[in-house]
Specification:
Elements: H1 3-13, H2 24-33, H3 35-38, H4 42-58, E1 60-63, H5 71-82, H6 91-94, E2 103-107, E3 111-118, E4 124-131, E5 133-135, E6 141-144, H7 145-149, H8 151-157, H9 161-172, H10 193-221, H11 236-249, H12 251-257, H13 262-269
Parallel strand pairs: 1-2, 2-6
Antiparallel strand pairs: 3-4, 5-6
Helix pairs in contact: 1-4, 2-5, 4-5, 5-9, 9-11, 11-12
């Protein structure tokens, strides 16, 4: 590892509680696999490594269906899970966003979940749903390793199942996921909390409705399909999570597609120095 990165790493680790180290070889392996992590500045990589180490010290991984979650796999997931926290304060404070759960369940591939829906007449309907990931309120996070590992293709498409599910955790901090996480004081110059949320929704609501319309036009009338994952058209919370995936892993393309959302996401995720 370059001497400057080692010095930055020691400096950042000095500001957080002692945690198990992430070896240089495993960390560099993760950076090589995920181009959006390799593109971070050296100070950002150093802080992300510290965040990831602290994350690993507080979370437990469980492999489903006999999957052995290796150290390299756990670091890959931790680094991507911590990416949205990179500028949300010092490490211990930032990880408070994820303090409502401990376990991360990793499936080899897609998982099939049984669901129940009660209709207006009180009749219970059962169905199955194929999942790439799931974040449960005050509960564990589930991920498909097959989709976590498919880094190159997913980056080009603006997809990232880890960012998606962990951003849901941010959203849930204000209660039921609705597409708006708790906003900091003075968000985008707002003088009150109400003004901050108005500023958020004044940007997100029209962007969501426009995206839904584009998805409908593509699916029903054969119009060009949007670049962003169509799953984002299913609800405000999914639109937020899908948008954040693309924002973090393919920022340049996302800025072309959703220029109006960039200032709002930057205001939330790229705050002033800690």
């Amino acid at each position: 590892m370059p001497p400057i990165l080692n010095r930055l790493w020691r400096r950042v680790r000095a500001t957080v509680a002692p945690v198990p180290d992430i070896s240089a070889d495993l960390w560099l392996h993760t950076l090589r696999r995920y181009p959006f992590l390799a593109a971070l500045s050296l100070p950002e990589q150093a802080k992300l490594r510290a965040l990831s180490a602290l994350f690993l010290d507080h979370k437990q991984f469980h492999g489903a269906h006999g999957l052995d979650v290796t150290d390299a796999m756990a670091i890959d997931i931790a680094a991507q899970a911590c990416l949205p926290l990179l500028h949300l304060g010092k490490a211990s404070k930032a990880l408070g966003w994820y303090d409502d759960f401990v376990t991360i369940v990793v499936h080899p591939a897609e998982a099939v979940a049984r669901r129940q829906i009660t209709d207006e007449a009180g009749v219970v309907h059962e169905h199955t749903q194929v999942l790439l990931g799931e974040a449960m309120e005050r509960g564990p996070v589930m991920l498909s390793w097959e989709h976590v590992a498919n880094a190159t293709e997913n980056t080009a498409r603006g997809h990232n199942v880890v960012v998606h599910e962990f951003v849901h955790k941010l959203d849930m901090k204000s209660g039921d996921a609705n597409g708006c996480p708790p906003l900091p004081a003075g968000f985008m110059g707002a003088r009150t909390g109400r003004a901050a949320y108005e500023a958020w929704w004044n940007t997100w609501e029209p962007a969501y409705q426009d995206f839904r319309e584009r998805v409908i036009m593509a699916e029903r009338f054969g119009a060009e399909r949007p670049w962003l994952d169509a799953y984002g058209a299913t609800s405000q919370s999914e639109f937020f999570a899908v948008a954040c995936e693309a924002y973090f892993v393919n920022r340049a393309r996302f800025a072309q597609e959703f220029a109006g959302l960039m200032p709002v996401l930057d205001a939330f995720f790229r705050r002033a120095a800690d």
